[in-house]
Amino acid sequence: MKKYNVAILGATGAVGQEMLKVLGERNFPYGELKLLASKRSAGEEVEFQGKKFVIEEATENSFENINVVLCAAENYISEALSPAAVKAGAVVIDNSSAFRLNDDVPLVVPEVNPEDVKNHKGIIANPNCSTIIALTALNELNKYAKINRMVVSTFQAVSGAGVNGIKELDQQISDINSGKTVEIKTFAHQIAYNVIPQIGDFDEMGYSQEEMKMQNEGRKIFHNPDLKVNCTCVRVPVYRSHSESITIETEKEITPEKARELLANADGVKLVDDPASKKYPMPLDTSNQDLIYVGRVRKDISQDNSLVLWCCGDQVRKGAATNAVQIAEVLVKENLI
Amino acid sequence: MKKYNVAILGATGAVGQEMLKVLGERNFPYGELKLLASKRSAGEEVEFQGKKFVIEEATENSFENINVVLCAAENYISEALSPAAVKAGAVVIDNSSAFRLNDDVPLVVPEVNPEDVKNHKGIIANPNCSTIIALTALNELNKYAKINRMVVSTFQAVSGAGVNGIKELDQQISDINSGKTVEIKTFAHQIAYNVIPQIGDFDEMGYSQEEMKMQNEGRKIFHNPDLKVNCTCVRVPVYRSHSESITIETEKEITPEKARELLANADGVKLVDDPASKKYPMPLDTSNQDLIYVGRVRKDISQDNSLVLWCCGDQVRKGAATNAVQIAEVLVKENLI
């Protein structure tokens, strides 16, 4: 079996660590494995599948002989190093938002638009976590009846801010319960026992970056430049799974029964929709795995050709690490590396 | 100054206790004050404004000489006792949902439809908490341009389930952090570090009772039988303030600037809308007071004549106790008791 040399750029972060775990779980045929991070982390040892790996400092010269770079670094690092990786002959699967909307960069959810990887020029972008979760949930519905408009409210986990987000929730709850002063570092405000309607900075219309990603990235992934999305993104005191309350308007009616049938057979989706028995997706039940759970499917009683649903998915896994590894798998399957 | 004899029915619950507090804070001109609860609580002593009150068992004979009953009891208790209170000559302001949709029972948010109290036949209903919060926020917008449709996702505090809801969140967080097994009693699932898309039971279409209240009660309070609402109600691990993500469609355009002007001058509303400075309503900042905070006001980029906003309000106060006391104040002002 052919092996591929893999580098993880940003290997010490929450997503980077999960990428390593997912590569192992899914038996990705890796040969050489390079764990790259900032100078600060260089020299640290990581054990993976019984072997010890030493974290190396990521530089422009880190990518010789590498076939695939899984990039879990911030935008400015991806911008600085991804071109060098491409020049060295690697394909970069980039979880940052740096290149997502570039015309020559495919933006891929493997369940939705795997064929787009073929058009890559060296970089393939991994979409935003809430976008991946929503679009995986909606894909079969969109194929059956084109989605023209979405109204979305998100309930996003603290893991979206990485390891520090999780630590901050824990620290704040511990400080509150022991009567100490709450420190705010990672989020704009206290997240313990609170919800914060801000993820990213705001544009002049009043939408946050995270809110605009759903429309901008959704249009590209669904190949529907006319898709209209009004999104409100909210951080909630939950560890890892994002939840989304979604209303879709479709070009023809999808009955709830038809929607459930489509969702029950959709790739990457698990239908959990028996509210009378208190069964619906929740963050707690959907963490640490890869499926997007969908439930609360019902007719929108406020207009025709419109459905309401609720979905949850692990932000670190399908929302980031797993989706990136799945893209690498498509590259392997299609002989594109 | 004329005094009014007041009874609080369900005086030991979260809302009943808050009603007592609010009566004091707002200097309601009470004469006799009767605190009624179940047999179990009868005999307990409560201190209020320097006097001791003994909780009495609520029976059909509890309402002699009472002018106003503030009912914070469950539906079946209100159904059993409110008619007796009315027969004894009292006006019942009922926080349960038992009579809300009855034609001869006004359903009142004093900032929105105070004139409706005049039509009472003994019972005036206090609306559902999320409905009060949304409609107080939307009232001036609805007056300026009729709201035809609303899409709402709620982020509801555990206080909506009373004292037990608050205790359950605390107990679960404490148990989790000390490695104990989590007990689930009040909510359908663990609420700590989770969100639950269920408040109340579900109808055959898949909407929960709480979700349908927004449309059914909204129509009655706004005097708009054609109002269409698609609502998703979600419990979040927050103590007291509900948050709501709301999209409204109006019969003519309301620009965000106009909306902010209307909201800045709206009764019962505080506009907090400076997202660039990280200022927007949040549960933590809006608890233990009576105003509904509104922010994140923006044009709906997905359709015309449509606005998006975010509001928060204390569920126990404006969502229940304060609104009931405000109704009593309208009765006094209009000489209706």
From TrEMBL, chains A, B:
Q: Which residues form the Semialdehyde dehydrogenase NAD-binding domain?
A: 5-120
| Pfam name, any one | Semialdhyde_dhC
The residues that hold substrate are: 156, 235
What keywords were assigned to this record? Amino-acid biosynthesis, Diaminopimelate biosynthesis, Lysine biosynthesis, Methionine biosynthesis, NADP, Oxidoreductase, Threonine biosynthesis
GO MF annotation list:
aspartate-semialdehyde dehydrogenase activity; NAD binding; NADP binding; protein dimerization activity
Q: Which GO terms describe its biological process?
A: 'de novo' L-methionine biosynthetic process; diaminopimelate biosynthetic process; isoleucine biosynthetic process; lysine biosynthetic process via diaminopimelate; threonine biosynthetic process
Note whether Ion transport occurs among the keywords. no
Q: Which domain of life is it from?
A: Bacteria
Which top EC class is given? oxidoreductase
Q: Which reaction does it catalyse?
A: L-aspartate 4-semialdehyde + phosphate + NADP(+) = 4-phospho-L-aspartate + NADPH + H(+)
UniProt-listed Gene3D superfamilies: Dihydrodipicolinate Reductase, domain 2 (3.30.360.10), NAD(P)-binding Rossmann-like Domain (3.40.50.720)
PROSITE patterns given for it?
ASD
Q: Does the keyword Oxidoreductase apply?
A: yes
Q: Where is the active site?
A: 129, 242
Residues engaged in binding NADP(+): 12-15, 40-41, 159-160, 315
| EC number(s) stated in the UniProt entry for this protein | 1.2.1.11
Q: Please tell me where phosphate binds in this chain.
A: 100
So, what pathway does this thing act in?
Amino-acid biosynthesis; L-methionine biosynthesis via de novo pathway; L-homoserine from L-aspartate: step 2/3; Amino-acid biosynthesis; L-threonine biosynthesis; L-threonine from L-aspartate: step 2/5; Amino-acid biosynthesis; L-lysine biosynthesis via DAP pathway; (S)-tetrahydrodipicolinate from L-aspartate: step 2/4
In which family does this protein belong, per the annotation? Belongs to the aspartate-semialdehyde dehydrogenase family.
Q: How does it assemble?
A: Homodimer.
Q: What is the purpose of this protein? A: Catalyzes the NADPH-dependent formation of L-aspartate-semialdehyde (L-ASA) by the reductive dephosphorylation of L-aspartyl-4-phosphate.
* PANTHER family assigned to the protein according to its UniProt record, in alphabetical order: ASPARTATE-SEMIALDEHYDE DEHYDROGENASE, DEHYDROGENASE, PUTATIVE-RELATED
Name of the protein? Aspartate-semialdehyde dehydrogenase
